[in-house]
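Table S2 (text version). Query chain:
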Amino acid sequence: MNTNTKLQNGEFLDKAELAALGEGQMAYVKPILSDEITRLFPQAPEIQPGLKLFALLSASGEPIVLTDTRDAAVANAWAHDLETVSLH
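Corresponding C-alpha cell output:
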C-alpha cells in the first residue's frame, strides 16, 4: 500500500512531509470523547467518560489544547495566529 500523497503536479509527499505542511500556521479542531483524552493528552487528569470535547491539534497532530466547546478551541487557535480546519 502506498502511503505517499500525490500532488496535482504529479509529485508525491511522504507522511513526514505531509505532516509538516502548515506547521506553525494551521491547526485542526477535532471532536473527541473524554475516553480518548489519555491517548492525546497523557498528562491530563481523569475525566468522566462519555463527555464530548474538542481538541486543538497542530498540523502535525501534536495536541495543543483540550476544551469543552469548539468555539473555545477555535479562539485559542486564533489567539496563536493559527488558521483552523475541522476534522470529522
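Notes on Table S2: Residues 41 and 63 are 7 Å apart (CA to CA). The radius of gyration is 15 Å.
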